[in-house]
Amino acid sequence: MLKTGVNAPAIEVVDLGGKAWRLEQALTKGPVLLAFIKISCPTCRLTLPFLQRLIERGQPGSPALLAISQDNAQATEDFLDRFGIRVPAAVDPAWDFVASNAFRITHVPSMFLIETDGTVSQAIEGFVKTELEMLGSRFGVTTFEAGEAVPELRPG
What we know:
The protein is of the alpha+beta class.
């Protein structure tokens, strides 16, 4: 897994609408939060609603989110629909996993906050409540509600 402080690799994936999505291009509009997922991953199902909340409540300057699925487009769409998750998503084709390999993904979910200069400022593997809280506080968003039952840690 890539560490903080390194430059993010240039990647291109195909969004669920069939259009090419390029990290370089997205960074011209602001920071980007990439979330690598797999639909069979229960920790991904736990994490994505909190990422959705982070983006929905985001302030100006909050990152754009892209979930990058290691499954096909139809399975990914079905997964997002079934769990009511409304986040932009793309597919990292299973035959080569170019984006996943470029970010050295060994577990999902793996998340990377990438600054406009291309550096990785935060890297999270699995569900780590304190890391997600730090991410939210940086952008002025309360990630978890008071009294909400949220685990401290759930590995990917």
